[in-house]
Design a protein that fits this description.
The chain is mainly β. The protein is built from four helices and 36 strands. A hairpin with a 2-residue loop joins β32 and β33. The N and C termini lie close together (about 10 Å).
Length: about 475
């Protein structure tokens, strides 16, 4: 292994991605049925997504960061690294597949990894939305993004200190610096998502509950916001009247896209697991409507009328998007978000093989691996984790299968606390890595990887000079 300062020398896509994410924040109608908490941060009004009270779904080992990790920027051999994909909005977004190991320890000639301590992450270079023809790669396979259920969560009376991570949604906060009168009047927080994304400067907006004599309210930029109640001295921390984050409860993805284009009345599009028939198309001043029938493989039929809405809030608005997407079993129809109905035709997608991926539920047929989607500060999809649901124990000389044999983790040797290990796939193995006391490491070079570097650099001042990187894959010395 070699040591080199990487923070300043490696180009980062984080600030550029954050700017693209923030530019798309537009006003929208609030979701029906949402009951906002009593004390709200200064969200743009109205908001795109439902607002609810609560912390969100827990993730095992979410608050753990890798301990003195080895960074292998080449990634796991054969995994997706910077593969460009152009969606049907004409936007090209590089895709990455990342492997992270954290919280591991050496004991009795074996390595122990806690639940949530090893995860795959599909990490696109910027946030993504349905109704754009977007796709990501999960375990080497391309899946199209059909729809999802995002939410803004508000946690009341939350304390953020410098010793622990405080979670809301899939976001974590830690106090980096308390407020300093006339210097830095607002507290400075370290922020990251569960999978590691951490945009600099910090995405959180803060204001005081009683602003007289305090710092002026900050302009609300994202849905990550806090209303500061008081500064606690013993122990040191900040008590927030409310602290918010974003989360996703479930998503729909599919490897099949049988049709995208202009459909006409009477047209039937077949999928491997059903069909879609366009019954009627009606054009109106407000956009129009598309009536259709979905037939699934089991013979069931269901009729839908989708509304072709005209709104600058599309495809971002959760409430409007629901009126333009039909999902029945494994078949889905999605209207083009930009004035899809014109002269007796409708522009739309037809998807087959649609799968519903729930948060903290098994990923596909993988028994021991769960899925956890990640929302960015304005609730776009920004990553998809597949993590170990149960503790992993690997003995010396053992090769342990990961994610249904998409990769393997091999413990080559253990001598006391000194461990040699490598990660492989069907296309080869990483260089042999040596560590003391654990095998914490990060493989790949996506957005979450740069976020992990940002977080460790903020909390460990010596990281830039002490960070270790694996030898290049071109280094054959083993």
């Amino acid at each position: 292994m070699t040591s080199r300062p990487m923070i300043a020398s490696r180009p980062s896509i984080l600030l550029f991605s954050a700017a693209l994410c923030l530019l798309s924040l537009l006003p929208d109608a609030p979701a029906r049925g949402a009951s906002p908490p009593a004390v709200l941060p200064p969200f743009h009004q109205p908001v795109f997504f439902p607002v609810e009270s609560g912390k969100g779904s827990p993730l095992p080992a979410a608050s753990i960061t890798p301990a003195d990790p080895v960074f292998s920027f080449d990634g796991v051999p054969g995994w997706i690294q910077g593969k460009p994909f152009k969606n049907q909005m004409g936007v090209t977004i590089p895709k990455y597949e990342i492997l992270v190991i954290k919280g591991s320890r050496v004991k009795d000639n074996q390595v122990i990894i806690p639940p949530g301590g090893l995860y795959f992450d599909a990490s696109p270079a910027r946030g993504e939305l349905p109704m754009t023809g977007s796709a990501d790669y999960f375990l080497g396979k391309k899946y199209y993004f059909v729809d999802y259920r995002p939410v803004i969560l508000v946690r009341k009376n939350a304390t953020v200190d410098g010793a622990h991570w405080t979670g809301v949604g899939n976001h974590l906060y830690k106090l980096l610096s308390p407020p300093v009168p006339k210097v830095v009047p607002n507290p400075v927080l370290v922020w990251r998502t569960y999978d590691g994304v951490s945009i600099r400067p910090w995405a959180i907006t803060q204001r005081w509950e009683h602003p007289s004599g305090r710092w002026a309210d900050q302009t609300a930029m994202t849905y990550l916001q806090g209303v500061i109640g008081s500064v606690e001295k013993k122990p040191a921390g900040i008590r927030y009247i409310s602290l918010s984050g974003t989360a996703i409860s479930k998503e729909w993805w599919t490897p099949q896209k049988p049709f995208f284009g202009d459909a006409r009345p009477g047209q039937t599009v077949k999928t491997p697991d059903g069909s879609v028939t366009i019954d009627r198309i009606r054009r109106t001043r407000k956009g129009g409507s598309v009536s259709l029938t979905i037939r699934t493989r089991d013979g069931k039929t269901k009729q839908f009328t989708l509304r072709a809405l005209k709104s600058p809030a599309l495809p971002e608005s959760a409430a409007l998007r629901r009126r333009m997407i039909a999902i029945s079993g494994s078949v889905a129809v999605v209207l083009w978000p930009k004035d899809p109905v014109r002269k007796n035709r409708a522009r739309l997608w037809v998807y087959g093989g649609v799968q519903e991926w729930k948060t903290n539920a098994p990923f596909g047929t993988l028994v021991h691996w769960n899925y956890f989607p990640i929302a960015c500060p304005i609730a776009h999809h920004i990553g998809g984790m597949i993590y170990n649901r149960e503790e992993i124990r690997i003995h010396e000389g053992e090769s342990f299968p990961l994610f249904g044999k998409y990769a393997r983790l091999k413990l080559v040797s253990v001598h006391g606390q000194t461990v040699q290990f490598e990660v492989g796939s069907h296309q080869g193995w990483t260089p042999l890595l040596t560590k003391q006391g654990n095998i914490d490491s990060v493989f790949g070079e996506g957005r979450a990887v740069h976020g992990i570097i940002n977080t460790l650099n903020a909390t460990s001042p010596d990281l830039s000079t002490g960070m270790t990187t694996a030898p290049s894959s071109g280094d054959k010395s083993r």
